[in-house]
Amino acid sequence: MITEIGITAGDIWNYLDKNGSATLTTLSKSVGKPRDLLLMSLGWLAREGHVALGRPEEDYLSALASR
């Protein structure tokens, strides 16, 4: 499971690097992974300081931390 979380974290990072910030709904559709796996992977990336998370509206917003 840890490997799958890490691979999905890489997919998320690559998507955000290419497209900028995205909502959780957009990431789920674009990355094509189950929502629970996305949440675990986003948590990993956030803990490592690679993404910033926010909730400006009804959905969570993710962006690379360096932007």
Q: Which features characterize this protein?
A:
alpha+beta; globular; Arc Repressor Mutant, subunit A; 3-stranded antiparallel sheet
Provide a descriptive summary of the structure in words.
This protein is an alpha+beta fold and 67 residues long. It has one domain: Arc Repressor Mutant, subunit A (Orthogonal Bundle). Helices cover 58% and strands 15% of the residues. It contains 3 helices and 3 strands. The chain has helices at 2-19, 24-31, 35-47; strands at 22-23, 51-54, 61-64. The protein has a 3-stranded antiparallel sheet with strand order 1-3-2. A hairpin with a 6-residue loop joins β2 and β3 (61-64). α1 packs across α3. The mean pLDDT is 86.
How do the helices and strands line up, and which of them pair or pack?
Elements: H1 2-19, E1 22-23, H2 24-31, H3 35-47, E2 51-54, E3 61-64
Antiparallel strand pairs: 1-3, 2-3
Helix pairs in contact: 1-3
Mean pLDDT: 86
Identify the overall geometry: globular
CATH architecture: Orthogonal Bundle
Q: CATH topology, which one? A: Arc Repressor Mutant, subunit A
Question: What's this model, at a glance?
Answer:
By secondary structure, the chain is α+β, with helices and mostly antiparallel strands.
